[in-house]
Every structure is written in structure tokens, then in C-alpha cells.
Automatic annotation (TrEMBL):
InterPro entries tied to this protein: Adenylyl_cyclase_CyaB (IPR008173), CYTH-like_dom_sf (IPR033469), CYTH_domain (IPR023577)
Residue stretches making up the CYTH domain: 5-185
Organism: Candidatus Woesebacteria bacterium RIFCSPLOWO2_01_FULL_39_25
Database matches in Gene3D superfamilies: Hypothetical Protein Pfu-838710-001
NCBIfam families (alphabetical): cyaB
Matching SMART domains: CYTH (SM01118)
Protein name: CYTH domain-containing protein
Amino acid sequence: MAHNNQEIELKLPLTREQFDKVSKKLQKIAKFVKFCHQIDDYFTPTYKSFLLAKYPYEWLSIRKRNGKVVLNYKHWYPENAKYTTHCDEYDTEVGDVEQLEKILAALSFRNLVTFEKKRSVFLYQNSLEIALDEVKELGFFIEVETMKDFGSVEEARREIIKFTKTLDLLGTRTVPGGYAAALMRQKGLVK
């Protein structure tokens, strides 16, 4: 969830053992918010494919969340960089997913990939949202995202990294392009 239409997050791959260990620790230090099952369909326009960049930095998705449907657009920065720091994010709830898919098809958008994940969400000190994700075909991940303004992207990232270190996680580089790009790399759609 973006704060003021800007998302600042760190998404790290985990082993099953790390996933279980972090889950236990989060249950002690953070507030459990919810469990959800999510399905995301990613699209690109055929006339200006998002995949033309070496490192795609734009995504359009239809997100299905517990009976709700959301149209989501993200633009990552820095553009065309393997590792990004933040993105502009805009989304809106949609009433009829079938009509939305027809609109996208009429505008020459095509579906690239669909991925599914099981997500457990925690809140830490009302400032960080932590999601533990089990993503079908990709594995286990943690996503730590800011829920408030830390003053700058750099300061927000410092807070996120400081928090992940308390979980004994030392990675600082997010999954390039997120789950969609990881799945597309796996399927040979992007490098």
C-alpha cells in the first residue's frame, strides 16, 4: 500500500527456514493484521511494451484481493535500473473485472503473467507494513514497506534496512522488478 501515492519497500527472498523464523519473531514484535490470498494479472500495451526496457519500470495490473478488484499502475525509479528505490503507485477499486479486461483488450493491452500469493500482513509501530509472502512458482519472501513519511526516500530505506537487520536479514537489494518481473524472467519473457 503506497503512502501518498509513493511506495518505498524492500522485498527479499527467503528460505523456508528463514520464513518460519521471521514469522515467529514478527508475532512477538509486531501486530498481526490479516491473512489474504492474492491473484495479480500483469498487462502491457502492445504498442509500447513495458518489456522493451532492459529493466522494466512500469507495471499495470489487475489485483484480486478478498473479493475486491483493483486496477494498479506502478512507475519505478530510477527508471531502467536493476535495483529500484521507490515507485509512484496509483490504484482504484473496480466493480466489474470482466468489463475492465474487455477495456484493456480493446486498448490493445495483453496479459503477460498471472501470479498467486498467500500473504500474512503485520504492522510494526504504525510505521512499517511487513508482508510474509508465499508466491506460487517463486517461493518465500518478505516485503517491508513504509506506512508514513520518513522525510525522504533515503531515510525511509534506512529505516527499512534497520528493521530487517533486527530480523537477522542482511539483504539490502530488492527483488528486481518485483514478483511480476521474477516470474517473467523465469518464463523467459525478460532477461
